[in-house]
């Protein structure tokens, strides 16, 4: 009976460990980028940069992520400020990410965050994790 339980636990741990490893793999043959920004107006030149890199690199272009954090995080809930950026980011293949730590600190109503913006618990930590996966990083 002990052997059966031990084998079952070992099998389950192996299964979950293998799944976790697959989720963290990034195509290192592609150029992946992450930009950490504190100001919504900076999204315009960031998206233009992503478009230029995508055109320049072609098939070598990978993922482009923008992490929004800091004092002005509440601006992401303003439809007037965000409407053009969300559409342009989507067309350019840019993923917009909001920092949960900043949203909590500056009391942002999470129900007002546009569906196209993903959230992470800690934007700075997420940035470092992406760098460890080989992403080129820039902070503005």
TrEMBL record:
InterPro entries: DsrEFH-like (IPR027396). This is Sulfur reduction protein DsrE. It comes from Bizionia argentinensis JUB59.
């Amino acid at each position: 009976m002990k052997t059966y339980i031990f084998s079952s636990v070992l099998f389950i741990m192996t299964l979950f460990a293998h799944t976790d490893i697959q989720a963290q793999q990034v195509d290192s043959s592609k150029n992946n980028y992450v930009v950490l920004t504190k100001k919504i107006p900076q999204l315009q030149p960031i998206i233009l940069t992503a478009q230029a890199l995508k055109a320049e690199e072609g098939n070598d272009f990978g993922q482009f992520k923008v992490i929004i954090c800091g004092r002005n995080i509440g601006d992401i809930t303003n439809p007037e400020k965000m409407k053009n950026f969300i559409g342009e980011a989507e067309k350019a293949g840019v993923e917009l990410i909001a920092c949960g730590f900043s949203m909590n600190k500056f009391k942002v109503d999470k129900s007002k965050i546009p569906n196209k913006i993903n959230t992470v618990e800690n934007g700075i930590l997420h940035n470092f994790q992406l760098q460890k996966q080989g992403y080129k990083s820039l902070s503005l």
